[in-house]
C-alpha cells in the first residue's frame, strides 16, 4: 500500500483529536459533521472494514483510550458520545437514527442521542439503538440489542438486552 493510499484512508482523521489515532486495516470515515477523539483511539479495520460517519450537523465524540474492533459501524446523525476506556467488539453497530419511520402515524424524531459511559465493554455483534445511555463500567454481552438505557455496573445480554447481573467494580479499576 502506497503512501497516498494511506493518506486517503486517513483523510479527516488527522483533523480531530489530540493525537493521530492508531489505525490498522481499512477504516472509512465520512466526516461531514464533527468528529472528536481523545488520546489513544485505536481502530482495527481487518479482516473487516470499519465505517465511521458523522453527517452534517451531527457530533461524534470518542473519549481517551477507546478501542474499535473490526467490522464496526458507527453513524452519528445527531450525537454519539463514547466515554473513556471503552472497548467495542467486532461487527457491532452503533446508529443514533432509525433512518425511516415505522408507519404513517410515527411522528417522533428519527435521530436520538447515544451516550456510552466510561470503562464500558461492548461485545461482538451488538446493536446499540437510538436514544440509549449505557452506564459506566457496564458490559454488553455478544449479540445483544440495546434498545433501552443500561445502568452503571451491570452485565446485560439478549435481544432486547436485559440485566443479567450486577458487577463489582472497585473505584479506579479500568478494564484491560
From TrEMBL:
InterPro entries: Hexapep, Hexapeptide_acetyltransf, Trimer_LpxA-like_sf
Pfam families: Hexapep
A GO CC annotation given for this chain: cytosol
Protein name: Acetyltransferase
Single GO MF descriptor: O-acyltransferase activity
Keyword field: Transferase
Matches recorded under Gene3D superfamilies: Hexapeptide repeat proteins
Plastid as UniProt keyword: no
Record family assignment: Belongs to the transferase hexapeptide repeat family.
Domain of life (superkingdom): Bacteria
Coiled-coil intervals: none
PANTHER family, per the entry: ACETYLTRANSFERASE C18B11.09C-RELATED, SIALIC ACID SYNTHASE-RELATED
Transmembrane segments: none
Amino acid at each position: 500500500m502506497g503512501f497516498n493510499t494511506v493518506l486517503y484512508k486517513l483523510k479527516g482523521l488527522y483533523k480531530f483529536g489530540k493525537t493521530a489515532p492508531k489505525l490498522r486495516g481499512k477504516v472509512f470515515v465520512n466526516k461531514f459533521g464533527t468528529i472528536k477523539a481523545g488520546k489513544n483511539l485505536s481502530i482495527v479495520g481487518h479482516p473487516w472494514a470499519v465505517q465511521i460517519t458523522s453527517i452534517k450537523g451531527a457530533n461524534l465524540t470518542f473519549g481517551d483510550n477507546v478501542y474499535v474492533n473490526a467490522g464496526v459501524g458507527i453513524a452519528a446523525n445527531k450525537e454519539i458520545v463514547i466515554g473513556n476506556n471503552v472497548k467495542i467488539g467486532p461487527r457491532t453497530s452503533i446508529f443514533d437514527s432509525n433512518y425511516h419511520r415505522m408507519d404513517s402515524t410515527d411522528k417522533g424524531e428519527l435521530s436520538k442521542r447515544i451516550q456510552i459511559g466510561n470503562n464500558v465493554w461492548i461485545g461482538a455483534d451488538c446493536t446499540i439503538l437510538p436514544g440509549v445511555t449505557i452506564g459506566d463500567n457496564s458490559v454488553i454481552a455478544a449479540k445483544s440489542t440495546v434498545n433501552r438505557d443500561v445502568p452503571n455496573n451491570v452485565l446485560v445480554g439478549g435481544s432486547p438486552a436485559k440485566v443479567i447481573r450486577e458487577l463489582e467494580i472497585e473505584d479506579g479499576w479500568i478494564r484491560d
